[in-house]
Amino acid sequence: MTIKLHNTKSRKKEVFAPIDPDTVRMYVCGPTVYDRAHLGNARPVVVFDVLYRLLRHTYGADHVTYVRNFTDVDDKINARAAESGRAIGEITEETIQWFLDDMGALGVLEPNHMPRATQYIPQMVAMIEDLIAKGHAYEAEGHVLFAVDSWREQYGKLSGRSVDDMIAGARVEVAPYKKNPMDFVLWKPSTPDLPGWGSPWGRGRPGWHIECSAMAHELLGESFDIHGGGNDLMFPHHENEIAQSCCAHPEGDFARVWMHNEMLQVEGKKMSKSLGNFFTVRDLLEQGVPGEVIRFVFLSTHYRKPMDWTVEKAREAEVTLRKWYRQIGLAEAGTGKVHPQVELELSNDLNTHGALTECHVLSNSNDVTTLRASMRVLGFLENGIPDWAMVPGFSDAETGLVRYLLQEREHARRKKDFERADRIRDGMARAGVVVKDTVGEPEFEKTARFDVNLLDELWGNTP
Ligand SMILES: [Zn+2]
User: Fold this and answer.
1) For 444, which of 35, 227, 376, 424 is 20 to 30 Å away at the CA?
2) How far is the CA of 256 from the centre of ligand 1 (A)?
């Protein structure tokens, strides 16, 4: 199976060929941990979870290494600690667990490595020393800055801007110690009340961008296959990651394929606190929107298009999933294969919308084992059929009762004893059994108000 992925670097869809087919390597920028993930934060997590699943499906589960970091040192975290009076470690620990729980509810697999920035400070310091030694960084007033001019020709290629354009249009932080306003911080000094680590430049803490470069290098090497994230990270974060990594390790080429997902909107509008349409994944889960439904809505839009979250889409997704889960729940267990069309759609730059369309076809043709396998590769059914969609099955005795009553109804109809046939039908409805007359054998389902005693009574009273 050939996988094609859109590479932001070349602005083209390219045939994906891993550097080492035995270990496909992927890095995705993870959250800064100081608060609950909002719905927009969850989009890249789900998008790259589908890619991870596709890679595992294609190359084998043991042949993919996926790294997603936690940024647990950041000024936003420091500010949260200061305003709440709580310890930084307590806040980051709690937020990491929230994140894992919330993403787990969306059916997201945990990556192979989830490095925390604070565990890789020595690697960051070593990388910064290397950049200084190679003439790509300089120390100024306790800060270490990356010298953009030392890499001017390359800087900006990912996002397609020149350094001059960026200076003209960017909200760059002007500081007297910067040689070029575009130079960015690799290391900054910490006051005693802020987290800090010893370094050749005094007690301080790392800049955000160096974290990803150091952790990706440590866990994936100089060159790896895929780097992902939201397109809001393309500049400056990813541009800076490339500059640091390629200058520190010119023998490698850092990430070969860069993938960026588009942003999320709510009912056609940008999600923002001022518009009152800002909510977290946890908010939705607590309102009773199942995680699988959130996942379904996300996957119904291609990752490179803006995703519009609407209540109507969530409602439709729930109806569809309920139907599919019910079909799977009622069917005999059996092993099916992912439908080739689903593989084809996903291999075509993660066309999750196309894959879901094919699942509709499978459901309509009642190809339940293929539907089950296809849903699994999309990240549904990870823990079986969720409780909210569960239709409890009939026990053997109950099935026997229902079948007997259906036979009796059929006899009555044949003898044109419609009164008796209707009596049985109404009695079954009262007992909470829904009967669907089909061309072949009638189908029957249990409802929540099923009462076996009423069914038993009906059996006893049906001469
Ligand atoms: Zn990053």
Assistant:
1) 376
2) 15
User: Is residue 375 a contact partner of residue 292, using CB atoms and an 8 Å limit?
Assistant: no
Give the residue carrying structure tokens 């969530």.
Answer: 314
Q: Pairing state of beta strands 433-436 and 204-206?
A: unpaired
Cα–Cα distance, 166 to 182 (Å, whole number):
8
Residue 170 has what pLDDT? 63
Cα(224) to ligand 1 centroid in Å equals 14
Please report, for residues 30, 50, 136, 167, 285, the alpha-carbon distance to residue 38 in angstroms, rounded to integers and kept in the order given. Answer: 13, 19, 37, 31, 12
The CA distance from 325 to 317, in Å, is: 12
Tokens of 253: 């080429």
Give the distance between the most distant pair of CA atoms in the chain: 99
Do 55 and 228 touch, CB atoms closer than 8 A? no
Judge whether 241 is annotated as a binding position: yes
Provide the sign of the torsion angle of the four alpha carbons 230, 231, 232, 233, taken in this order.
Answer: positive
Q: Is residue 113 part of an annotated ligand binding site?
A: no
Q: Tell me how far the alpha carbon of residue 161 lies from the centroid of ligand 1, in angstroms.
A: 19
Strand positions, DSSP E, 108-158: 137-140, 143-146
Start-end of CATH 3.40.50.620 domains in the chain:
4-261
Query: Is residue 447 pLDDT above 90, yes or no?
Result: no
Question: What are 273-288's pLDDT values in tens digits?
Answer: 888 888 999 999 999 9
**312-352: pLDDT as tens digits:** 999 999 999 988 988 887 676 778 999 999 999 999 999 99
Q: What is the C-alpha separation between 150 and 134, in angstroms, rounded?
A: 10
Angle in degrees, CA 266, 160, 232, rounded to 5: 25
Rounded-to-integer distance, Cα 445 and Cα 393, Å: 8
Residue bearing the bigger pLDDT, 164 or 28: 28
Predicted TM-score (pTM) of the model is 0.85
Distance 132 CA to ligand 1 centre (A): 21
Q: How far apart are CA 397 and CA 374, in angstroms?
A: 33
CB atoms within 10 A of CB 91: 19
- Structural contact between residues 458 and 424, judged by C-beta atoms closer than 8 angstroms: yes
Reported as a pLDDT band with limits 50, 70 and 90, residue 300 is: very high
User: Residues 28, 258: contact at Cβ < 8 Å?
Assistant: no
CATH superfamily of 4-261: HUPs (3.40.50.620)
CA angle 222, 227, 230 (to 5 degrees): 150
29 annotated binding-site participant: yes
Q: How far is CA 458 from CA 401, 422, 444, 455, in A?
A: 10, 12, 16, 5
Instruction: Answer yes or no: are the C-beta atoms of 177 and 142 closer than 8 Å.
Output: no
> What are φ and ψ of residue 25, in 5° steps?
-120, 130
Could you give the percent of the chain with pLDDT greater than 90? 76
